[in-house]
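Consider what follows.

. . .
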Amino acid sequence: MLPSELIERKRDGHELTSEELGFLLSGYQAGEVADYQISAFLMAVYFQGLSTAELSALTGAMIDSGRRLDFAGGESPAVDKHSTGGVGDKVSLVLAPLLAEFGLRVPMMSGRGLGHTGGTLDKLESIPGFQTQIDLTEFEAILADIGCAMIGQTPEVAPLDGRLYALRDVTGTVQSIPLIASSIISKKVAEGIEALVLDVKYGSGAFKPSYEAALELAQALVTLAAAEGLKASALLTAMEQPLGVTVGNALEVRESIETLAGGGPADLREVTLALCAEAVVLSGVADETAARTRLEAILDSGAALERFAKLIERQSGDPSVVENPDRLPSAPVQVPWVASRDGFVGSIDARQVGLAAIELGAGRARIEDVVDPAVGFEIECGIGDPVETGQRLATIHAASKSAAEAAAERLQRAIALVPEAPPEAPPLVRCRIGPGG
């Protein structure tokens, strides 16, 4: 078999056998198939999709490319959450310590920024000293000590997915449903958890902007998880505007700390609580009403924030940022962006905000780019808000004045002001796809 021949067949819409896919993927792992050839294969999949058999073969190859952990059978259920990606989505930073304080175990392997969305690892690494590249033995020890651990994908767990993930980010193939599904589920199965709650975003800031496409992705994820023996459900959540107020790594950590202290933006709190309650229900520990009541009490008490501080310290970070968030990185240039006229906020294009954050340095345009942890935005308005001329709608945090000016031009395109109030937005959590559909 020749890699080019298989790429051509996939490009032309033919189904590859498990042996052919195995040849291509094992060859890539062995260095016998080049990055540019796999990039072409990913683009072919983007346009042609994968059959059920192909998807199963790809997911299995990712799982089998490394070690498979097993956290089943412990004193408390092992659960995790995965988001399909959004702008300002810092839910994981609140969810992990909150569920751990509830009594569940949360062994979370997270990713970096993908496309126009931010990554949990980049946010965590904005905390001085915080280590996300930790071996599996230490990962297990942290989980035993703290109840949660938040690390990057290790070379031992689904290494094939890690390499494909990086290529997808820079080849325009992020949005492919089968590639998203296989990437997520392979990692979570290899992670050894018992239950998984999926946060599937739709709207301008999501990889699947339409509700219908997000619903298709949610169903594919839950179905694939079940086929691999993992109990999972999905919530479809709105991403028509950034989640919370901040976009940018250190800024989002600061907002997460506020939320763990019982404050924070209402939308971030609501989405986090909904996902946490779903994880509790999946684990079989409590029903939704009881779970929600107790989770709210924990969040308001600040106990989850104390656990987050312990996690930071355990992973070599500076826990004093919890008491003094000013110890987080801060951008040298902070410029207000104001309304040009009276009216209402008609829309906020979250994708444009995410791209603007990347241009500031909060994300990566290329694999080798270095992230600036301090830059980003505070979006101080929401869809439907009345505004007056000169009112501050956002604050730009930038490394230079020229970068701030370029970001302001992006915001001008992203935030639309209209003369009349827009229709009421749909609910933050629109739909649930359970294990049975």
The first helix runs from residue 3 to 11.
